[in-house]
Specification:
The protein has 125 residues and is α+β, with helices and mostly antiparallel strands. It has 2 domains: 1-84, no CATH class; 86-125. The protein is built from 5 helices and 4 strands. It has a two-stranded antiparallel sheet with strand order 1-2. Strand 1 and strand 2 form a beta hairpin. It comes from marine metagenome.
């Protein structure tokens, strides 16, 4: 939770729109954040005939994030600090799991998702 808060603050400090953290209690594992609702880029794209402007905004945002100079140690809004771990193949697999576990099941069967996941893991290893 400290990592989430620290990265959130770091991105906000670099003018990347993220949910505001209103309060948190690390000991109890509670964080109260701004709710962005349930509108996703997927839902936006479903309603657009011309998807290019949406994709352009997404790519521009990714470029903006890529240009931010990373720090090894980040501070949260409540003056706690978090050390950023070195990126590794383990983290790459954990992050790619989100795509397979949350997004692909919207479009493919569990069996197909598992097959794709195994192929990608093999390529990334």
């Amino acid at each position: 939770m400290i990592a989430c808060s620290a990265i959130n603050k770091f991105l906000r400090d670099n003018r990347i729109f993220t949910p505001r953290v209103f309060t948190q209690d690390y000991a109890k594992g509670i964080m109260i954040m701004e709710d962005f609702g349930d509108l996703t880029f997927h839902k936006i794209l479903l309603g657009k005939r011309n998807k290019l402007p949406v994709y352009k905004k997404l790519v521009d945002l990714l470029i903006k994030i890529q240009k931010i100079q990373p720090k090894k140690k980040l501070r949260t809004i409540f003056a706690k600090s978090h050390i950023i771990d070195k990126y590794s193949i383990k983290y790459l697999h954990q992050e790619s799991d989100l795509f397979f576990d949350w997004y692909l099941p919207l479009f493919f069967s569990r069996k197909k998702v598992l097959s794709m996941k195994l192929r990608v893991k093999k390529i990334l290893s």
